[in-house]
Design a protein that fits this description.
The chain has about 350 residues and is of the alpha/beta class. Helix content is about 35%, strand content about 20%. The chain is built from 12 helices and 14 strands. The chain starts with a strand and ends with a helix. The mean pLDDT is about 95. The structure holds S-adenosyl-L-homocysteine.
């Protein structure tokens, strides 16, 4: 059985043309029914011939995950655990920004990147999410929002999206497709810990999608300790690929920088950071760290976070402090899942 949610329009066209001897417009018809009209019953797809509807019934399905547990914050943030068909759970978050509803999507069950501060990596990668499972996270979110819709996507949940590159790209194409979710490319952001070869590939996708890079330290000495990936792709290589991305994709890049008390939040760190990003079309998102009970890292004091922003600004760096959501519900990224696991 093929799950229709697994295919971008182009991929579905290829499948229908090559395997079923259909014309490419069949795929457009199906997309219109399932995404624009929300119809999942093949017998209602009236502009598709009876014969092909029978084939659809026999060979295709529209299966999506379910919501296992949901928490709502007083600020409107909704976190839920998406239950996949093999009972794995991943975290999905809806954040109500003033400019739209942002969905934070998980791309893997667990993660192998092993960043020292991150809760997601505590659970080693079990497997990649299939495209249809990420589409499922989005469909479930839209159902929860009822009359409102998700307007922005950030692939910043559990997992390293560039370690699941092809599935994530198909998902993004479905998000972006005018015959599906029609979310503007500029409203879609993928965040990576720094897989250099994939950054180069992403630059050439020909879409106006955004790239965020988790930096978190401005010297190899510090970054090696915080992020295992830095031993494979040190800062020199990461920065070279980033510059190439900015040039080839003709896009600004975002650097994410978690502020960890006494680890990377001094004036010296701010200077090193400013030096590192000098000359790159970038801005820096300063992230107040969400403490995780499984490690010792502490969040920088609020005054230090503002001070750090000030240092950067004075050094001519574009930076902002990321708005926090849902601080009254399982604050840290990855903690909702961890909480359920404890009770298992
Ligand atoms: N693997 C990707 C995307 C997932 S994490 C990446 O590394 O970019 C999304 C962002 O949240 C990353 O910048 C990550 O470093 C950050 N993050 C992880 N744990 C966090 C925590 N406890 N508090 C705040 N941010 C965290």
């Amino acid at each position: 059985m093929y799950n229709l949610y697994n295919y971008s329009l182009k991929q579905l066209q290829d499948l229908l043309v090559n395997k079923y001897n259909q014309k490419p417009f069949r795929a457009t018809q199906i997309f219109t029914w399932i995404y624009l009209k929300g119809v999942s019953d093949f017998s209602l797809m009236s502009d598709i011939s009876k014969d092909f509807r029978d084939i659809l019934k026999k060979d295709f399905c529209l299966v999506k995950p379910t919501i296992f547990k949901k928490e709502e914050s007083s600020d409107g943030t909704i976190k839920f655990l998406t239950k996949l068909s093999d009972d794995n759970l991943v975290e999905t978050v809806i954040m109500p920004y003033n400019y739209g509803n942002v969905l934070c999507v998980s791309s893997q069950v667990g993660c192998n990147m092993g960043c020292a501060f991150c809760a997601s990596g505590l659970l080693k990668k079990k497997r990649n999410l299939e495209t249809h499972e990420m589409v499922g996270e989005l469909l479930l979110a839209n159902e929860l929002l009822k009359d409102k819709k998700i307007t922005h996507i950030v692939v910043m949940g559990t997992g390293e999206p560039f370690d699941n590159y092809d599935n994530v790209m198909s998902f993004i194409r479905i998000c972006n497709d005018p015959k599906a979710f029609e979310i503007g490319a500029r409203h879609i952001t993928v965040s990576t810990c720094g897989l250099v070869d994939k950054i180069r590939q992403y630059a050439k996708e020909g879409l106006q999608i955004n790239l965020a890079i988790s930096l978190h330290a401005a010297t190899d000495e510090k970054r090696n300790k915080l992020m295992k990936i830095n031993q494979r792709y040190p800062l020199k290589e990461l920065m070279a690929a980033t510059k190439e991305y900015v040039q080839v994709a003709d896009r600004r890049v975002t650097f994410e920088y978690i502020l960890l008390k006494d680890i990377n939040d001094t004036e010296e760190d701010a200077k090193a950071l400013a030096k590192l990003v000098k000359g790159i079309l970038a801005y820096i998102n300063l992230i107040p760290y969400n403490e995780v009970k499984e490690n010792e890292f502490k969040r920088s004091d609020k005054s230090r976070v503002h001070q750090f922003l000030d240092w950067l600004t004075k050094l001519g760096v574009h930076a902002q402090i990321r708005k926090e959501f849902g601080s009254d519900i399982s604050a840290a990224c990855g903690q909702l899942r961890a909480k359920v696991k404890d009770n298992e």
